[in-house]
User: Fold these one by one.
Assistant:
Number 1:
Amino acid sequence: MMYDLIVVGAGIVGLTSAFHYVKNNGGKVLVVEAQAGPAQGNTARSVGGFRMGLFTSSINRLISETTVKYYLDVQRGGYDLGIHQIGYLILLDELNYDMYVQRVQELFRAGTAKLLSRDELKSKVGFIQLDLVDEEAQLMGLRPIKGAIFSPFSGYLDVEKLAMHYYEKLVEMGVEFKFNTRVERLKLAAVNKIGHPREPFAWQEKKIEAVETSRGLFEAEKFILATGAWSQELLDPLGIDSYIKPKKRQIFASPAGGELEAFFNVKGFNDFGTLPMTFIPRGPFVAPRIRDRSLWMGLSDDIGRRWGLDFEAEDLFFYDNVYPLLRKIFPVIEGVRPQSKWAGCYSINTIDENPVAFRIMNLIVATGGSGSGVMKADSLGRIAAALAVDRKEVELYGGVKVPSTLLGIRERRIEPEMLVF
Amino acid sequence: MMYDLIVVGAGIVGLTSAFHYVKNNGGKVLVVEAQAGPAQGNTARSVGGFRMGLFTSSINRLISETTVKYYLDVQRGGYDLGIHQIGYLILLDELNYDMYVQRVQELFRAGTAKLLSRDELKSKVGFIQLDLVDEEAQLMGLRPIKGAIFSPFSGYLDVEKLAMHYYEKLVEMGVEFKFNTRVERLKLAAVNKIGHPREPFAWQEKKIEAVETSRGLFEAEKFILATGAWSQELLDPLGIDSYIKPKKRQIFASPAGGELEAFFNVKGFNDFGTLPMTFIPRGPFVAPRIRDRSLWMGLSDDIGRRWGLDFEAEDLFFYDNVYPLLRKIFPVIEGVRPQSKWAGCYSINTIDENPVAFRIMNLIVATGGSGSGVMKADSLGRIAAALAVDRKEVELYGGVKVPSTLLGIRERRIEPEMLVF
């Protein structure tokens, strides 16, 4: 059985890649996935947050805004993706206020971000603590809050619903899925075999011939590797770099009720009457989830958090690093005990934290969401699909055309995102 | 005992970094090295080849030419570095001739590279075979040779002598060396400790406090990591990326004598009467070594050669990948049996194969020679030393000034080298 294309990974990027490939080219396509169903790896473990008009780098804006517009149109069209535009709120302290305000001037002008003064913040969010002058706050590096950037169109969606949207379309289109099928090796072969047991030799042109999986070998003309945090494990034996490394991220959730109800009773930010997804100085965030009325909390830690696949959520991480800071700014959090916690792995492109999509031989690598993969997945899938058929230009949702090498490494324009929180 | 600076690694980059640091700043400096002496890791395993005026990318030219000029001046000053400017010769086949000739026009104009016709080649190197039209040649992807690029000022040096040059100066300057001392961990700590057993926490400013080694813990204000192919092993636990990966490279050596004498009896290329270091299509090279009259042969293989530390030279690699191609072009090689072989690991910067030098906290990472580290080491050491004292500008040998962020990642201008052979 020879497929036209095998997509490795049924996470959100594998699904969008397969979708755009089949939509444009048809053909016999197989998606292979280690988990029991679509998007049950790191996609399922993500917050599903999306920024809308809240990036400064042009590549970030291009690939996220086109993607999110598509998601919004899907939901407007009647397919519920669980999108809640509760907004993003980034608190600024006395130290970083001027720098951030200067960096997002363009977003203020475009109307996708608004500056809130300290007084506006205090009047909208009665239970917030902005002074932060005591010894404990100083010890943790917290400084008085001077204002905030509010992004009204940002929010989160339900990643499982989003995955099902693409999955259902793929099944309709006749794409074959093999779940519970772990890819163990990408099998390298000579393009023109000579029948020698040790080929391919260094002097032979090469290609990927098949994937060796826990359920046998599957051959195809082309392969898309959409394996996120697992990508480098498959590429190391081939001596190919994905430019990404895995890093653990953790989420801690507590049901609303009691004092935490305060987060769900905030006027003036969104239609749901909640606090936006809020990022406080030094990194912790809190996100009120509408559907299950729970509060999600987390922190993307950097130096000291080792690279590697690790799926164990640690209570101590919450109590050491997230809770002490959140509690200073939101005293109602005092005494919270998360009732659930989970960990996933970002696939971090360490160069500029934007996704990576490139072709080498007949292999397309599409990965490196770096924590913003869900909000860029539709565009990334389009680019991967274009690379699979050697198309030079890709049309993103809404008609914007970009070169298919946009997310490659050699042609990359490194443009660090200035709005990091 | 608190050092001003600890340099991890006494390979060529560690030595140049320590040298330029102490020369400019003095201070109490320790160099820690796992091997028994200087430059006994991958530096010792390298060919020691250098290109002079044979790069197209401006960064490559800048950092290699300044470095090689320094080496040449050292040798002219009476300190023998074993430099032999035997030249580089890159054979071009019918397929790549036009492309390469176009790419190096600027080098032809500058006079650092010359174009040789097929006839000139044949008349200078009587024993070369340029036709390559038989079935075996075609099978291996060899095509008729149409000409060659000759780089008269390139050559190789003795890496051990080069290392001793810096090492002796460092000892003179009072720099302390600890050999047979393997660094097991870079110890992360909070800048302002609070005395908690689990610090540093995510919200604390951090620094490297010490290196934990096989011979105890050593503390310093700053650290330079010049650990080449071993760098990422030390950085993974910290969640920092070096942007480099290790890949095995092998050299096979055969003494001259018999038919191989032909390589040492070639007129018109250099003062030594040898064939230049010669690169043939599809990658294999052959280098006549003057001092011990031996022929070094090798090949930098790419796809299919796994990333990772691996120091085992494989006879089969030579007979499968190097020998069959070299023999077609140099029939005198027929039947050669290398009498020695060794393997080392390149530290490959997978972005653009130029070195990497950046500072994070009080740690400077200087690595990623990618196979051209020896010929860039003096400049890389100057840049690392400048980063260690937060100097924005670096003066390379000969007075050229460059920003110290030149080899950083965020500020990087990716400029792929067009002259790859």
Note: DSSP finds ten helices and 20 strands in chain B.
Number 2:
Amino acid sequence: MITGTRAKLSVIVLQAFFQLFQVESVSFTPAWWVSAPCVFQSWFVKPYFNSFVTRTNTCGELRSAHVGQKVTLYGWVQYQRQGLFLVLRDFQGLTQIIIPQDEAHSHVKELLSNAPVESVVRVTGIVSSRPLGQENPKMPTGDIEVKAETAEILNSCKKLPFEIKDFIKKSEALRMQYRYLDLRSFRLQSNLRLRSQMVMRMREYLCNLHGFVDVETPTLFKRTPGGAKEFLVPSREAGKFYSLPQSPQQFKQLLMVGGLDRYFQVARCYRDEGSRPDRQPEFTQIDIEMSFVDRAGIQRLIEGLLQHSWPEERALIMTPFPSMTYEEALAEYGTDKPDTRFGMKIMDIGDVLRGSDIHFVQNALSYPHGSIKAICIPQGVVSDCSALGALRLFSASLLEAAGLALRDPTAFHFLWVVDFPLFLPKAKNPTELESAHHPFTAPHPSDASLLYSDPTKVRSQHYDLVLNGNEVGGGSIRIHSAEQQRFVLEKVLKEDSEVLSHLIEALEFGAPPHGGIALGKLLFLLNS
Amino acid sequence: MITGTRAKLSVIVLQAFFQLFQVESVSFTPAWWVSAPCVFQSWFVKPYFNSFVTRTNTCGELRSAHVGQKVTLYGWVQYQRQGLFLVLRDFQGLTQIIIPQDEAHSHVKELLSNAPVESVVRVTGIVSSRPLGQENPKMPTGDIEVKAETAEILNSCKKLPFEIKDFIKKSEALRMQYRYLDLRSFRLQSNLRLRSQMVMRMREYLCNLHGFVDVETPTLFKRTPGGAKEFLVPSREAGKFYSLPQSPQQFKQLLMVGGLDRYFQVARCYRDEGSRPDRQPEFTQIDIEMSFVDRAGIQRLIEGLLQHSWPEERALIMTPFPSMTYEEALAEYGTDKPDTRFGMKIMDIGDVLRGSDIHFVQNALSYPHGSIKAICIPQGVVSDCSALGALRLFSASLLEAAGLALRDPTAFHFLWVVDFPLFLPKAKNPTELESAHHPFTAPHPSDASLLYSDPTKVRSQHYDLVLNGNEVGGGSIRIHSAEQQRFVLEKVLKEDSEVLSHLIEALEFGAPPHGGIALGKLLFLLNS
């Protein structure tokens, strides 16, 4: 709680902070306001890992400045050598522990010399400088060692099914069976912590800086029409089922109708379509919805969100992100999620070849919309060049295998893809239309009248966020007119609008214009 | 992203902040570190609600200082009077809009005079002082009004099923059917926002200040033995089911074995036992687990967490919270979740009556452990006084109905209840034992040897957090020895330990001592 004195002091510092910024002639505008607190926060708040426990330090913390201090560490035995020293590990790092050799500490020597690898140990001792020449510059704690005075084996470890070292390849099945051992590796620890921190910074941006409200929506929901990929959950009433929703789409739209104005949720979603390496039956998305917003508003929000939360140790990301229409993406990259880290665009060379006498070329060009396209591959290592979009990526892989650095794995190329078609012909019956994304997507304002005359030509207000060739987010401005929503469902999609009557009715009771986005695979891609 | 200059400035301010505290002779200890950043943060970060949209202000924002400014507001028509003015509402408040009466603005007058209540409107106009004597001191924006210049009806509202006013009582069924209209009320808006802010501050405390890692654990899980109240989810494999877990208990223990050290999650949990006003099939708990911690450590953590996140407008909460043993709670309050806002404790008056010649008293006292107990009720309004624990609460209700202020509804009396029994006789078969809480609870260190000789006498390391007579949290120090866990399951509880073999095996691979807690009903109780 804020005591009077503390609150007063905070206000003083607040003023000092403003003054410093004014000296640097950074004006106090909302834009500044938006970016400043994050800077302060990331510098000011360093987690304190030793609160509420009796350890004095973590195993990654001790430096020369601690020499002479009595410390208590808790950790796992990484390895032990000949009863002389052992290395203790926790989530933050490694510390070398010197096992005492004198008679007075024979009990400590006995304990530590016989503790199996990965046993859990408490050690109390004195921080000392390592003898000259024995420092380890590769180890953050490599200047010191701890001379053990007392020790306790808190839990002994039986023989491991595999070694807990990052460079040791384990079978996937073994890693899954002993997931808790796998988690002790530096890589998985760091992935979990990176995810937690990044989501925390996203929350700060949305909640603290921009007034978004974190609302948890139910996951035991009624079935969505056409939601074939939903898990069903039998209820206590015979023959009645809940379903686990694929996204909180309907809930977040209803929250906008409820006047919430700015909603977000780190939302658990479910999709019953079997597991794949990049797709799991349950997954999480950063789910966002705003009232009174247009496409550009959502795009600036997301660019700011990613800049704010991007890990400091990764390559900087520049905003605004470039934007490309769906049509351009298909024409130049043969896909709606282009990897823009490298060129090799698809080019139309029909005009060049139109005068040639190559028979199959002339034949292809003779059809309506007939064209001949090509990709220019630098240093033509590959002789086969017979397809487009997917081939471009395949060629990149081949070129990289041959030693050409095409796609920088540390670069992050974000791209907006916009102006998707609102409807697509159904795969099974091309005379009927289905939503390119979902039936709540609003038509492009320039094409609104086409909705009633030629719906196949209507572009939507859907936008995808693409990162290095992966779709990492997608959203749209939604339909907020009950009449337009009913027309889309009944007349264009030929669906029974009754199953969505609760949503359509909500639109009739003063639904604000609104739109949103969901960020999905982003966190997955960031992990190393 | 942090630019060099900003980072440097932040460091300067950081030093200034320390110096201020040193002047006030508050030493720089971990305890201070823990509480200081929150103070700064709550003063520094104010959400900016108008980013990414074209409104200049919310409807709760304008004051005399804004007079003369041209503003754009978006909101819902709260009411409209005779074509002269209307009140516009959004999530932040109300603003009075003056409808122009001159010919040049006849279109605006036409629009605004005919907009049905709860229609969504954009208004641009000039902020003006209200005429002298027409200010409304009850309204935060009551000093000003906005003279509309342009307006747009963004969505018209059809006739409402009920008025959106807090004082109008609606039937529960109608409120649920039109939940999005109910959400527009001040009370529900404020509840949702309070919850979001409080959880955000909890996250700051856990993640930013104390290094807890937010880990999302799966909800499609295998069935827990004895988990009769779990929802089942059919998988794609015939005859195989997932279950939706009642808590992430097993996952968080495995994360500790994985060396995560400090875990938290705002965790969705499921319990298939039908709906009740204070219990729903899905609910959320603040789920916490730590390694190398004892009961006192968890208690101090939670006290700090609640102080940090407690809404500023509610009564202060004092720490440390008082603590009471299970035995004391039952003896003095007749319940393991005492409401300590009022006295009326149960007293043993056996000794006083032992010398009396009242037959039934003597009879009761003649049994082994026989006793006579009483409650002292002030100003004895109630003549019937025939039962204990529940009666105490019932008496309090009766006394309050008779006008006696016993339980302050604005007071928050937290209480730890500790030293629960580890096992209880099964209700259906009292010769067998079941876990008082769950089979992973560690025995009290003083009673550890009793586990093998007389398990009925063993107290546990379980702790409950009680607020005003409601259990709002519970947790324990867990068993971290595989041998002890196997003994409890097989020898005491007579259960098949095979179904928990994954957990027992994990304890064999260097599981650290660990414990945790889950806070459940807290948020529910805070809502007004």
Note: Residues 186-209 of chain B form the longest helix (24 residues).
Number 3:
Amino acid sequence: MRRLFEDELNELHTRFSEMGMMVNEAIYKSVKAFVNHDKALAREVISEDQKINKREVDLEKRSFEMIALQQPVTTDLRVIVTVMKASSDLERMGDHAVSIAKSTIRVKGETRVPEIEKVIADMAAAVKEMVDQVLDAYVREDADRAREIAEEDHGINTFSKEIYQRCIQIMQEEPETIVGAMDYMLVSSYLERIGDYVTNICEWILYLRTGKLLELNSNAREDDF
Amino acid sequence: MRRLFEDELNELHTRFSEMGMMVNEAIYKSVKAFVNHDKALAREVISEDQKINKREVDLEKRSFEMIALQQPVTTDLRVIVTVMKASSDLERMGDHAVSIAKSTIRVKGETRVPEIEKVIADMAAAVKEMVDQVLDAYVREDADRAREIAEEDHGINTFSKEIYQRCIQIMQEEPETIVGAMDYMLVSSYLERIGDYVTNICEWILYLRTGKLLELNSNAREDDF
């Protein structure tokens, strides 16, 4: 019985990590598509989101059955609860990749602003790095690393503010950039939200190790977006 | 033992519904603050968000303890899992109310556009109506109603598109509205996201009744935001 349960628990971990990699790929592709104006790649992100959604449902079902049939307590239960909760965060990160992909498809040859696209690409690289790291920290159950990763979210918010300022400026100076700059703003807000979800997963890693539910980044500061 | 468990389950329901009402009030106040340019009310929304976050942690702890100590199966477990998952949706709806409040504080006497503010107010009223209804459907465990409520999300997306079009137009015609219109776009995107979370809760109500995890609104359509 215990042996079987261990196997199921490992399987759950593996499938969660795989979901993380699917989401990471979706984010990477969606930004690549946006920056390269690649609508075919954007469509790929949208159609592949179904796989991510299915995986979330699969993880929910497995978690539920493991709780119902094996009646785990303490640490084991914590592992399962973590997967149940954090898989929602991953799924929503995937949804934001889809939103970025939709922005790419919406753009119809409007005037682009390479300087802002450069900042978006840098922001996306920083977000992708956070996602890579949080998946690694999850596998290692590294609570210290999780705290550090959550700190990096402040850097993501700095990118947001920079993109906002630049968009306002270019829209005022060159009205033909308005439609494109609105999309820059939206894409930046999706990336920022992905960073928030990474922070949520960091909180779950801490919970996994300590059993304590903590909020790592408060959104009570008025000057943040 | 069973008696105690029933009491705890009822308490869990009540506390979840209360959280829903707290979130609903936050959304209502944040939009009221935005439309009336009321920074004091916006600050109230931001500071009260802590209560919502605390309530989520409280619900998570209670759910976890109930699973660990009472080892519920089938229907009872489903109720607890629903609260665990849907409380995250509520918490994020609260976060979006905070984002709307932050937009209100950021605005520094820029040129406002009353026609667009009117559409935002209408959109907010429609979102608030959805939130009211989903909380009611949750209490009644009304799966049919949940399906209907999820359908209403399409109407919310229609508001989004209208606001987007109007913002683009006014920015191009009157560049002094650019800063304000960017905020309109952001507020509209937060409201739309709140509608998505309502749809998630609808899915959880269906799960509560049927044990099936279904996706009510696919985000695979390219023309949506």
Note: Helices of chain B lie at 2-36, 39-70, 74-106, 114-140, 143-151, 153-173, 178-210.
